Amino acid sequence: xxxxxxxxxxxxxxxxxxxxxLEIKAGEVHAIMGPNGTGKSTLASVIAGREMFDVDRGxxxxxxxxxxxxxxxxxxxxxxxLGFQYPVEIPGVSMASFMRTAIxxxxxxxxxxxxxxxxxxxxxxxxxKLVEIHSKLTNRSVNEGFSGxxxxxxxxxxxxxxxxxxxxxxxxxxxxxxxxxxxxxxxVNKLRSPENATIIITHYQRLLDFIIPDYVHVLFDGRxxxxxxxxxxxxxxxxxxxxxxxxxxxxxxx
Amino acid sequence: MTTSINTLPLKDxxxxxxxxxxxxxxxxxxxxxxxxxxxALAAFERQGFPNPKLENWRFSDISLLLETDFxxxxxxxxxxxxxxxxxxxxxxxxxTFSVTLLNGWFVYKNAPxxxxxxxxxxxxxxxxxxxxxxxxxxxxxxxxFAEKSGLVALNTAFIQDGLFVYVPEGVTVEKPIQLINIVDxxxxxxxxxxxxxxxxKGANVTLVHCDHSLTHNVSLTNTVMExxxxxxxxxxxxxxxxxxxxxxxxxxxxxxLQKASKVxxxxxxxxxxxxxxxxxxxxxxTETHADLxxxxxxxxxxxxxxxxIIDHAAQGCFSNQLFKGxxxxxxxxxxxxxxxxxREAQQTLAYQxxxxxxxxxxxxxxxxxxxxxxxxxxxxxxxxxxxxxDPNAMFYLRSRGISEKNARQLMMLAFxxxxxxxxxxxxxxxxxxxxVEKRLKxxxxxxxxxxxxxxxxxxxxxxxxxxxx
Lengths: 254, 469
What we know:
The complex is a heterodimer of chains A (254) and B (469).
Chain A: E1 2-11, E2 14-24, E3 29-33, H1 40-48, E4 54-62, E5 65-66, H2 72-77, E6 80-83, E7 90-94, H3 95-109, H4 117-130, E8 141-142, H5 148-162, E9 166-170, H6 178-191, E10 197-202, E11 215-220, E12 223-228, H7 230-239, H8 241-253
Helix pairs in contact in A: 5-6
Chain B: E1 2-3, H1 10-20, H2 22-26, H3 31-47, E2 72-73, H4 83-86, E3 97-102, E4 105-107, E5 113-115, E6 121-124, H5 125-131, H6 133-139, H7 150-157, E7 163-167, E8 177-183, E9 189-191, E10 194-199, E11 204-213, E12 219-229, E13 234-242, E14 247-257, E15 262-271, E16 274-283, E17 289-298, E18 303-312, E19 318-327, E20 332-341, E21 348-358, E22 364-373, E23 378-387, H8 391-398, H9 404-420, H10 426-440, H11 451-454
Parallel strand pairs in B: 3-8, 7-10, 8-11, 9-12, 10-12, 11-13, 12-14, 13-15, 14-16, 15-17, 16-18, 17-19, 18-20, 19-21, 20-22, 21-23
Antiparallel strand pairs in B: 1-2, 3-4, 5-6, 6-7
Helix pairs in contact in B: 3-7, 5-6, 8-9, 9-10
């Protein structure tokens, strides 16, 4: 589904990703872990199409297409979803008009008729339950005045509505209490299918207790330095990142 | 008959036209009105038209406009004009008491003056001067002073017709009163409607004031309106300005608020060549409340200038100014908001905010707050922003599949919506919201029909009626 080869990315001349490689197939869940400032969020932003980065080298292929040929909105309509680490507040834009616009633009892109108001409202109610949103969240401005937990739930709610093929969840667990974490994880798990894939970017192993990844990668200095299965996350939790850093530095020395 | 002398500067032409046409201009006006007009003419002769040397006209130059060879209608044109034929669209859920002015003259439907069963009087100012001279004389020129403004002086000198509304004590006028101000002329026309609204103690009235042009011809409208809110009265005033690119519209509105009265003003400028709104609000007595809002959406070479002066002359009053604008192309906007808090106006709450979105590098806005505070126990704030659309929000919307164009529109609508939400009547709020939306999508032009009536209620493919959720 997604193939990243030898990707190097910089911002203002500072290299952030440096020779990054990753292959993701449908049905897989990949966790990308690593200390702060190693390029995890940059990776997410580059896949979603944020324009502030310079791609210096390498390629990303998404379902056989060159991702860099696609505008952010085209990527989204083709099934890429980024769950933001810091969801943006947009005063005055209601959740409902936001999501209905998004869904209908996607449907148009896929050659489908727009969804009627009634259908949309029904879908929204259904998906609200999935992430246990009880408030009239949909009636409010996008993320405005939402608590940290509400914002993250709202990301999963949008993901549920848009049904992406490839979801990238950037630090979705940060700032969540254990109950909210379970709700978010539960939402993600329910959306898992053999047809779609998920990239979970996280700092801690905690979220991976609830969303079991197929692969765990450790990102350090802009590239993956270690990959494994879910047990790697547990090992990281007990040994800390210093252990991986040491290994990486030793490998670099050889 | 229209009159035009094109050899003299406009000011001199007006001065000579005044005396030549005095019998027509006076018409059946009251002696008080006629005395006022003589004084006002002298005041206009002294002040002339505004020029950029005046502090509050620094950014708005009308000298080119004044070179136009304007014509004037000093007599009510009795040409057949069936307003019902022009406004054929159904009024959906907005049921208004609708009156029309054509080229500054009241268009009689059934009667020039209607007295509702609750005692409310709505109609032509010219007729009101004949039938209710005691009311007109009591208020005319009591809020708008010719000595302080050349435009007010000019309007006052030529007072002939306009809207007159009187709401008796304790009466709530159920239907909003809608004033449709139409300019339709084959020659450049200068017109000067004069409006007056009196809300007696505890009265409650809503006025929707629409300015339109039916042709793309040059016109200059110099409107003066005086609004008197007696104790506990509630007055809502909405102005919708959708004028042709060759129109110049000067509106000077004066509100006098007595004890515990409440005024909401919302000026929505959708289109216009040159638009100048002078909003003067005097809080004469305690516990008054003034909520002053404005929205201007301008593009191409449009110029809009909002000047607000709020005078806190009594203790414990509240005022809030929220003016927002979106400027495209080479459009130009000016905002000046003055808050005057007099020494006796302790416990004043006065807020002001002017926010602007510039969509191009050529668009320009000048925004100036003026605070003059002589009391020591007050809460005042002011703020002004000029900026572009938030790139983070743009990316967030696009990352969900929304095109750049639609993302911009959503953001602009959201920006404008804060002002639209200040409209108290739901049906009107929806309708104006709809017009704003059409305007931002480039689908609203000045048309030959009243957009307030005819604005399309059909939903666009991506928008949703929030009231139904």
